[in-house]
């Protein structure tokens, strides 16, 4: 039996061999059915099709058909617009595995009438969980590619919106959709995205994160080079600017690019508030990220090598808080940082209600117990807690993980060489960012190369009536968003 099974699992050379190969799986069924004066056979995977549609529409249509059992006549009778008669074995196999039912006259005929009957087990459109906003739309993508594209087309009802489908993954054969506005997006960006996706050589693609990692300019960099989002409004806004979006069937997140470093600190609900408030919040996020990276490292460097830089009043407080701590600053810093990371991972992996309780109670208990046991100082507990809190201000989840990672090399450099080590690691980090690109575009733009025209929506956000052009980084086909007109003050009716 095993030898015959292996022989049947070889590449089929005709329709009969293909059916025998698929029939090795217990969920593949072959049933006979009368159609008019003749009979046909149905082949399908019962775990992939909707049995209700099969019984009500397909079987009833075949039984009530008084004509001959010709596949063409059956196709004209059945109420399925997307049905087709195929002879290519690869197409037949692919559609059967996608939820189609096949109708054959005989195994030797080589023709199969394929009827779509895939069963849709989809969750409803829900509220964004990762990129939640208080103000603005409350829609998020789901795992169905067709629904996600529908959400984008609903926001961009433009004839210029182009969609190109690419199949990736030798085993999963996952459908990937590349979206762009033909009149606005730079053709070089579109071709680069399509080429990179088509060049992917991998057996299974389960999520857009797979595609994200495989098409990055520098796969060794810890910095994300594309923005992944679950919000249709963010995707439609990116397409309107001239970016390219990628959707993966089975994934609730989309990829947009090219992008810049500053964009990762721009929350989309910034556009739903006044430009003054949005600009302040963006600067707060940037300062919070800087504090999260440097605060603990500077604490270690100052207490290890540069205690003379500490004011006398503050130095007395530091000495008093550390008088019972038997470890050097680097040990207590690493202890607290690792404890915070453990609590964060435990809270993320546990159920929602339990995870929140563990995070709050665990943080309070561990912090209090560590100070009372003399394992760390209370000042460092405050610094580490604020650093962890500051890392959560990033609107994009992936850049938050990068910030968490960067703290550790800065702490180690501070222990080895003090503030000089912190400056050296910052120099290496800056050189890396200067050389980093996203789809060939500079990652630090508009900071470097400096482009004043793109500062209108970077660190600060200017009013909409001043954002008359699209970003130069994207090289859009239509640079002008709207015609700049002089705003004239109109008198009230009472004046």
UniProtKB/TrEMBL annotation:
The chain crosses the membrane at residues 286-305, 379-400, 412-434. GO terms for cellular component: plasma membrane. The keyword Transmembrane helix applies. It is a multi-pass membrane protein. It is found in: Cell membrane; Membrane. Keywords: Membrane, Transmembrane, Transmembrane helix. GO terms for biological process: spore germination. Its main location: membrane. Belongs to the GerABKA family. This is Spore germination protein. It comes from Alteribacter lacisalsi.
């Amino acid at each position: 039996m095993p030898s015959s099974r292996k022989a049947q699992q070889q590449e089929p050379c005709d329709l009969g061999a293909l059916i025998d190969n698929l029939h090795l799986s217990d969920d593949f069924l072959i049933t006979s059915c009368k159609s008019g004066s003749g009979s046909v056979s149905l082949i399908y995977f019962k775990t992939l099709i909707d049995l209700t549609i099969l019984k009500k529409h397909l079987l009833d249509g075949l039984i009530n058909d008084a004509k001959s059992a010709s596949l063409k006549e059956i196709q004209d009778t059945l109420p399925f617009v997307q049905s087709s008669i195929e002879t290519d074995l690869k197409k037949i196999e692919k559609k059967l595995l996608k939820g189609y039912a096949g109708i054959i006259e005989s195994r030797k005929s080589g023709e199969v009438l394929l009827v779509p009957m895939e069963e849709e087990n989809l969750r409803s459109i829900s509220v964004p969980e990762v990129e939640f906003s208080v103000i603005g739309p409350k829609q998020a993508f789901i795992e169905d590619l067709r629904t996600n594209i529908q959400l984008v087309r609903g926001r961009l009802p433009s004839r210029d919106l182009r969609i190109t489908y690419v199949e990736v993954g030798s085993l999963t054969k996952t459908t990937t959709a590349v979206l762009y506005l033909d009149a606005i997006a730079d053709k070089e960006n579109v071709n680069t995205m399509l080429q990179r996706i088509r060049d992917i050589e991998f057996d299974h693609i389960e999520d857009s994160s797979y595609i994200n990692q495989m098409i990055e300019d520098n796969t060794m960099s810890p910095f994300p080079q594309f923005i992944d989002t679950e919000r249709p409004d963010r995707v439609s806004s990116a397409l309107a600017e001239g970016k390219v979006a990628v959707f993966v069937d089975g994934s609730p997140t989309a990829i947009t690019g090219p992008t810049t470093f500053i964009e990762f600190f721009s929350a989309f609900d910034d556009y739903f508030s006044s430009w003054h408030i949005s600009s302040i919040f963006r600067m707060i996020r940037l300062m919070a990220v800087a504090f999260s990276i440097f605060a603990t490292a500077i604490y270690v460097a100052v207490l290890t090598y540069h205690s003379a830089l500490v004011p006398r009043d503050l130095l007395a407080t530091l000495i008093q808080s550390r008088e019972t701590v038997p470890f050097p600053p680097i040990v207590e810093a690493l202890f607290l940082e690792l404890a915070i990371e453990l609590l964060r991972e435990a809270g993320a992996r546990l159920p929602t209600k339990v995870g929140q309780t563990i995070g709050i109670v665990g943080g309070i208990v561990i912090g209090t117990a560590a100070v009372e046991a003399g394992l760390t100082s209370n000042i460092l507990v405050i610094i580490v807690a604020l650093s962890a809190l500051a890392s959560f201000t990033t609107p994009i989840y992936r850049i938050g993980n990068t910030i968490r990672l960067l703290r550790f090399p800065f702490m180690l450099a501070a222990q080895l060489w003090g503030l000089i080590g912190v400056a050296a690691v910052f120099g290496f980090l800056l050189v890396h960012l200067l050389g980093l690109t996203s789809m060939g575009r500079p990652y630090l733009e508009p900071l470097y190369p400096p482009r004043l025209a793109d500062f209108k929506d970077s660190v600060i956000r200017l009013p909409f009536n001043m954002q008359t052009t699209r970003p130069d980084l994207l090289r859009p086909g239509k640079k002008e968003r709207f015609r700049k007109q002089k705003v004239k003050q109109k008198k009230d009716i009472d004046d």
